[in-house]
């Protein structure tokens, strides 16, 4: 390759110029030793006295002890939500609900840096992302939905609708606060009350959000936050007074929840896994496509359900493209998530690290070639380098299973038909990416790709006005936009 | 813009020109601009910026005295501190070349002259090359010419190409920088195309702007050119330099350019042979920053020399 | 003298535009309220169901790729066919115990409903889709698309209006369906199939099985190539744990007691696709 981009690490560093270890100060964040459950407006102990530790995955150091909600605690939370629904929230005019949501949004903006640092500490994601993506989007979700609270009749003009009542929401560890915002904002805007369970590895920003919820004087019980693992989750799922469930997480758990809900005809929305194709045509704006691919798979360490994890490159440019990609990967900075110059942070948990490692090994066993950059990884904490697997066949596990880590598998194609066939050949259908300068080809592909979000000449973009959600085994229901409101309302007046 | 090709003058082989997506390009440039620098590395970065700088004066009112003073500053930017390196070159009009050659004698500072119907390029090919030959004869090490945008944008890429080929021939030993005047090209696609065309025609450097229109160098435009340079190097094994000029006034901006070049092209480009920043007021800001590093307190404009 | 002995119709399955008997060779009998045999009806097996899904899958993308206008025209043509066979349907409904007035009313309502949904083909996406004002230089729009292959447990009462109320909102957007009917309503379902066979409806868009809904239900909800099921028609005694297998491929499960014309029934079998593209030069 005539190019000179050094393949041996940070180029400027070789030149005696180093990026700062610009560590974001943690002094803004006051992490308590112990956290209770947030029920009926108060922080309370769990009835069982059980608790669990939450770690900083970049150091493996414990951050706090968090109460583990038992089914009794979930019951308390659901009751509080039920009472609050009848007493305050159902009766409150939409305009007033809106005011509370606006307040939450404002407080999130005001305390954004504190939230971002905490998110990075608890989850391992780079501060650059928690600061520039998670927090602004979380606040934006509250702002957007606040405005809907008194305009719902405009969203569904021909229907008489009402809230469900108490809603159970279970969210994952990859975007802890943002997912809480995606869930809470529309639920509250539509007049429901909520019992929310954050993931057990990342409970802290949801608990800080509980503080904000107190600060803004939201009536007690409108939002209840119960921390815990699978047991707490199933107590929510099985609770007879929960009138609707919303879950974001793995397809595996999503199926269990659906099993439980479907036989009770319980309204449910699921936002599950993915194995998104990222398709590069030979006429694409290749330098930007490279950036798109990088962002598509390495954003948030690849812990993204819609990650562009299957690269499909047109054969005519494949070698060159993969070459460029590897060069670019060498420039990624892996390390301390609190460093403002860090591109790739820590893997969220030991379990996830093991899963990634195991799947990559399976890929190598099946004959894939592996590329990893020369970057060194910190000694403590959970780390996985950005990785590319080439020579991958459609039948390989790594081409079919969601890895949920910074691992890209590469395949090639010759014709748009072949790209499409490979792209759609998966039980998932959350997102897909297309890069070509040919407008009609974008539409041809976009129309045929079986996925809920299509990014053409961009990737991993999110917005509260833009509905997000999957086809097929990636789930059902949408979050965001006018379409996202539908799940939080039901027909009233005798219609089911 | 669909993928197109341009013929490389050296080999006659065709060079692919890749399209550019504006939104993604600008997002990448913005993200590179968030890179922060270690305090201990700041001096190295500031010195590098100085070493890559072309001190420029291109005014109708330029005088031999002004040029001499510029050259003095170029050789020794901070008279009070000998550790501060000299700049790469001074950039002037052909009429001033011999003054500059005289004033920079015995130093590393090169003399660059604009030539070839600068800044429009709208003269006959003969007039343009005669102008270049004259500047070279007067002793210029580097010649900065403009792309014939009028021909290029009208679709007469062949003419634009041939003018550069002829200019290169007229340069002889002198280095040829081709100014694309990016602010007039209208899109990143055109910047990419013009970059490839200039390189294929023999440019040693491609340069953003004349400094004569308000729309000059921006970070995404230089990123766009750097990507073209990288692409050209891949396709031909020839490394072409880049010069960002116009609108770069602060040390911080200069740092952003270094990051863009370093991350896009690699370390080989972080030297005066491969990267230049054309500026007039930037040097003083860089010097102020250096003084701040030395003294630990913020300096003021009275403590650096005006040209 | 010939011509005096009536020729009874054989009620067969409707799969991929053809009328095969059940591969199982089994039938069940349908009698009128007086207990007289009307017909022996094919009793579909799980293999018949599998064939029907295969046909529905093959027909799905081509059906969805027709222009909305064309789908609307084809559906409207079906309504014309129904209108021309009004008397036949009235007689059929009467034979299975619907009184004359109700039968006439039901067929009229059914045709009206068919026409109502047919007219939605090129409109629902304008109501349900959107252009989204995202915060950035992107053009972003959301467009509804059909879910894919839909299994429908046909409501038994009213047999004609019930089925049409479920069937047309599913297919108008480009889904293809496999309907399972049971008992007396099977006669209506198969007769609707005969109407479809003589209309311009492409083969495989609608497939109609007759048999035991409870038997076929687990195969329907468990089939990995069925994207959604409408189980509104199941009987109240159905063991709901049978539905659990819907989770095996995260099937959309619809069960709602809406019996009027409703855009919601169209949205039940739609997926929202959102497309982003940068806006730049």
What can you tell me about this protein's structure?
The complex is a heterotrimer of chains A (496), B (307) and C (281). Helix content of chain A is 39%, strand content 17%. Chain A has 17 helices and 20 strands. In chain A, helix 2 packs across helix 9, helix 4 (112-123) packs across helix 5 (127-148) and helix 5 (127-148) packs parallel to helix 7 (176-189). The longest helix of chain B has 18 residues, at 219-236. Chain C is α/β, with parallel strands linked by helices. Chain C has a single domain (38-278), classed as Aldehyde Dehydrogenase, Chain A, domain 1 (3-Layer(aba) Sandwich), CATH 3.40.605. Chain C contains nine helices and ten strands. Chain C is globular, with a radius of gyration of 20 Å. The mean pLDDT of chain C is 95. The chains are: A alpha/beta (496), B alpha/beta (307), C alpha/beta (281). The interface between B and C is small, with 8 and 6 residues. Strand 18 (453-456) of chain A pairs parallel with strand 10 of chain C, so a sheet runs across the interface.
CATH class of the largest domain in chain A: Alpha Beta
Shape of chain A: globular
**SSE order of chain C in H/E notation?**
EEHHHHHEEEHEHEHEEHE
Q: What is the third-level CATH name, the topology of the largest domain in chain A? A: Aldehyde Dehydrogenase, Chain A, domain 1
Outline the biggest β-sheet of chain C: 5 strands, parallel
Topology (elements, then pairings):
The complex is a heterotrimer of chains A (496), B (307) and C (281).
Chain A: H1 11-14, E1 34-35, E2 37-39, E3 42-44, E4 51-56, E5 61-67, H2 71-89, H3 94-110, H4 112-123, H5 127-148, H6 152-155, E6 161-163, E7 166-170, H7 176-189, E8 193-197, H8 204-215, E9 223-225, H9 230-238, E10 244-248, H10 251-262, E11 268-271, E12 277-280, H11 286-298, E13 310-314, H12 318-330, H13 350-365, E14 369-371, E15 387-390, H14 397-400, E16 407-413, H15 416-424, E17 431-435, H16 439-448, E18 453-456, E19 475-476, H17 481-485, E20 489-491
Parallel strand pairs in A: 1-5, 7-8, 7-10, 8-9, 10-11, 12-13, 12-17, 13-16, 15-16, 17-18
Antiparallel strand pairs in A: 2-3, 4-5, 6-20, 11-19, 14-15
Chain B: E1 4-7, E2 14-17, H1 22-32, H2 39-51, E3 53-56, H3 64-75, E4 89-92, H4 97-104, E5 110-114, H5 125-137, E6 142-146, H6 149-153, H7 157-171, E7 175-179, H8 188-200, E8 205-207, H9 219-236, E9 241-245, H10 251-265, E10 275-279, H11 282-295
Parallel strand pairs in B: 3-4, 3-10, 4-5, 5-6, 6-7, 7-8, 8-9, 9-10
Antiparallel strand pairs in B: 1-2
Chain C: E1 27-31, E2 37-42, H1 46-65, H2 68-84, H3 86-95, H4 100-118, H5 124-128, E3 130-131, E4 138-146, E5 149-153, H6 159-171, E6 176-182, H7 185-197, E7 206-211, H8 213-222, E8 228-230, E9 252-254, H9 263-267, E10 270-278
Parallel strand pairs in C: 5-6, 5-8, 6-7, 8-9
Antiparallel strand pairs in C: 1-2, 3-4, 4-10
């Amino acid at each position: 390759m005539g190019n000179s981009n050094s393949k041996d690490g940070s180029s400027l560093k070789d030149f005696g110029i180093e990026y700062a270890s610009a560590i974001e100060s943690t002094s803004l964040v006051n992490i308590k030793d112990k956290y209770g459950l947030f029920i009926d407006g108060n922080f309370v102990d769990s009835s069982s006295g059980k608790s669990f530790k939450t770690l900083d995955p970049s150091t493996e150091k414990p951050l706090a002890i968090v109460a583990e909600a038992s089914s009794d605690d979930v019951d308390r939370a659901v009751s509080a939500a039920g009472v609050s629904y009848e007493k305050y929230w159902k009766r409150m005019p939409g305009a007033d609900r809106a005011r509370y949501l606006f307040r939450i949004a404002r407080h999130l903006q005001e305390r954004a840096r504190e939230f971002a640092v905490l998110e990075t500490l608890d989850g391992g994601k780079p501060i650059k992302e928690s600061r520039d993506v998670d927090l602004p989007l979380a606040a934006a979700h509250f702002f957007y939905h606040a405005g809907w609270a008194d305009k719902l009749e405009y969203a569904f003009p021909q229907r008489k609708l009402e809230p469900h009542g108490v809603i159970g929401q279970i969210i994952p560890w990859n975007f802890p606060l943002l997912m809480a915002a995606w869930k809470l904002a529309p639920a509250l805007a539509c007049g429901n009350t909520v019992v929310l369970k954050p993931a057990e590895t990342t409970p802290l920003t949801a608990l800080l959000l509980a503080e904000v919820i107190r600060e803004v004087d939201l009536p007690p019980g409108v939002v209840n936050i119960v921390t815990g693992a699978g047991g707490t989750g199933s107590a929510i799922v099985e609770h007879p007074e929960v009138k609707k469930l919303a879950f974001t997480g793995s397809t595996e758990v999503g199926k269990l929840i659906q099993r439980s809900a479907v036989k009770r005809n319980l309204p449910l929305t699921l936002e599950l896994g993915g194995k998104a194709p990222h398709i590069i045509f030979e006429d694409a704006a290749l330098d930007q496509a490279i950036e798109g691919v990088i962002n598509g798979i390495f954003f948030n360490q690849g812990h993204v359900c819609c990650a562009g994890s299957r690269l499909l490159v047109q054969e005519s440019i494949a070698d060159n493209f993969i070459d460029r990609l590897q060069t670019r990967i060498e420039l990624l900075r892996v390390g301390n998530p609190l460093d403002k110059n860090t591109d790739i942070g820590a893997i969220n948990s030991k379990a996830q690290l093991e899963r990634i490692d195991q799947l990559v090994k399976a890929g190598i066993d099946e004959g894939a070639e592996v590329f990893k950059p020369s970057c060194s990884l910190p000694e403590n904490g959970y780390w996985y380098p950005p990785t590319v697997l080439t020579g991958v066949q459609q039948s390989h596990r790594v081409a079919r299973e969601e890895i949920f880590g910074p691992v890209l598998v590469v395949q090639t194609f010759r014709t748009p038909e072949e790209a499409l066939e490979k792209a759609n050949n998966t039980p998932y259908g959350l997102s897909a990416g297309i890069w070509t300068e040919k407008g009609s080809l974008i539409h041809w592909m976009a129309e045929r790709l079986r996925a809920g979000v299509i990014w053409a000449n961009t990737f991993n973009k999110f917005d509260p006005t833009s509905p997000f959600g999957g086809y097929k085994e990636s789930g059902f229901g949408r979050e965001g936009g006018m379409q996202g409101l539908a799940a939080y309302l039901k027909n009233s007046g005798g219609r089911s | 813009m669909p993928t197109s090709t341009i013929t490389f003058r050296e080999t006659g082989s065709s060079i692919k020109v890749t399209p550019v997506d504006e939104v993604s390009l600008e997002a990448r440039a913005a993200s590179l601009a968030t890179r922060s620098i270690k305090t201990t590395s700041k001096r190295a970065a500031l010195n590098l910026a100085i070493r890559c700088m072309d001190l420029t004066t291109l005014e109708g009112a330029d005088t031999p005295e002004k040029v001499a003073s510029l050259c003095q500053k170029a050789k020794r930017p901070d008279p009070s501190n000998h550790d501060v390196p000299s700049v790469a070159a001074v950039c002037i009009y052909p009429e001033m070349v011999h003054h500059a050659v005289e004033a920079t004698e015995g130093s590393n500072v090169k003399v660059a002259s604009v030539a070839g119907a600068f800044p429009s390029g709208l003269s006959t090919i003969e007039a343009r090359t005669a102008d270049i030959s004259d500047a070279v004869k007067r002793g210029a090490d580097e010649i900065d010419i403009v792309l014939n945008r009028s021909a290029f944008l009208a679709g007469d890429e062949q003419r634009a190409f041939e003018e550069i080929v002829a200019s290169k021939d007229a340069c002889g030993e002198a280095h040829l920088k081709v100014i694309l005047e990016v602010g007039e090209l209208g899109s990143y696609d055109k910047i990419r195309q013009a970059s490839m065309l200039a390189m294929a025609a023999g440019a040693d450097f491609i340069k953003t702007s004349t400094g004569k229109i308000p729309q000059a160098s921006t970070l995404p435009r230089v990123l766009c050119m750097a990507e073209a340079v990288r692409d050209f190097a891949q396709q031909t094994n020839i490394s072409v330099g880049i010069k960002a000029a116009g609108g770069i006034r602060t040390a911080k901006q200069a740092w952003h350019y270094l990051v863009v070049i370093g991350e896009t092209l690699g370390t080989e480009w972080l030297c005066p042979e491969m990267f230049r920043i054309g500026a007039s007021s930037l040097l003083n800001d860089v010097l102020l920053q250096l003084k701040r590093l030395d003294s630990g307190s913020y300096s003021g404009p009275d403590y650096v020399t005006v040209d | 003298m010939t011509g005096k002995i009536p020729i009874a119709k054989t009620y067969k399955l409707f799969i991929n535009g053809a009328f095969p008997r059940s591969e199982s060779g089994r039938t069940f009998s349908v009698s009128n309220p007086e207990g007289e045999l009307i017909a022996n009806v094919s009793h579909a097996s799980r293999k018949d169901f599998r064939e029907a899904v295969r046909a529905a899958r093959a027909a799905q993308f081509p059906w969805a790729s027709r222009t909305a206008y064309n789908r609307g025209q084809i559906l409207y043509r079906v309504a014309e066919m129904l209108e021309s066979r009004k008397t036949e349907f009235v007689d059929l409904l009467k034979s299975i115990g619907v009184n004359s007035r109700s039968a006439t009313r039901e067929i009229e309502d059914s045709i009206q409903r068919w026409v109502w949904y047919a007219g939605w083909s090129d409109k629902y996406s304008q109501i349900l889709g959107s252009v989204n004002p995202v915060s950035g230089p992107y053009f972003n729009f959301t467009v509804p698309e059909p879910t894919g292959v839909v299994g429908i447990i046909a409501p038994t009462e009213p047999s004609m209006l019930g089925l049409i109320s479920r069937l047309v909102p599913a297919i108008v957007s480009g889904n293809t369906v496999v309907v399972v009917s049971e008992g007396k309503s099977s006669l209506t379902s198969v007769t609707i199939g005969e109407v479809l066979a003589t209309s311009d409806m492409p083969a495989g868009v609608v497939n109609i099985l007759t048999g035991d809904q409870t038997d076929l239900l687990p195969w329907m909800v468990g089939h990995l190539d069925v994207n959604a099921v409408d189980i509104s028609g199941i009987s109240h005694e159905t063991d709901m744990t049978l539905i659990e297998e819907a989770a095996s491929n995260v099937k959309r499960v619809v069960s709602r007691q809406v019996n009027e014309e409703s855009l919601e029934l169209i949205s039940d079998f739609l997926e929202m696709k959102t497309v982003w593209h940068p806006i730049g030069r």
